[in-house]
Amino acid sequence: MRLFLFKHASFGYFLVFTLKQLTMKKHIFLFLTSLFLSYTISTCSMEESAVGVKVTDVILDQTTLSLTVGGAGILNATVLPEDASKKDVTWESSNTNVATVSNSGVVSAVAIGTATITVKTKSGGKTASCNVTVSTTAVSVASVSLNKTSTTLAINGTEQLTCTILPTNATNKGLTWSSSNANIATVSNNGLVTAKAVGTATITVKTTDGNKTASCTVTVTSASVAVTSVSLNKTTTTITIGNTEQLTPNSA
User: Rounded to 5 degrees, what are φ and ψ at 247?
Assistant: First the structure.
């Protein structure tokens, strides 16, 4: 009986000891698992922090650009989002015989033709392009003149001024028109002058290229009354040889 109790008691102690061991191992396992997960999360966070904010797009301020041989223009690239971690870009021309591009986006026209300038982000490989057209060397405006240097108009009257730009093959023939006193006379974008009130005003045309100018002084007088008919004091008369008679006109 004692032997039986001893054996069962020993088994009970062993069982308790074993359960305690398993419990300890369970806690150790849970601790190690928790530690591993913490390390993994920390590592991922560090890697994400190292990568930073990814580039999503790049855009250019111009998609087309016209230049003359020897001329230059600048393209500005914007990397998105604004808080992207890496904003480095590279520039490339599809035809360096026509146009080249610097590392800062300055485009230089080399010869007549077309070329595509492409900007590419180093991070993400996002791209944007601008089509460049190169034409012949520009011919500058030397002078501009008007068909009249002075004119007189009645109120509400109009007159078309025309200008001549030299040389005739000037590249940029853009013009702007202005009046020194729009209350007296106005001028349209194509040089049509309209008289508004009695007085004088100076109409000036200026070239976009070179700011060359020419002027016309406009004098505005009071509105004239149009003649609607004319008659004579007589419709018939008889005159003897050697005599004279004064006919008097009547206007209405």
Answer: -95, 140
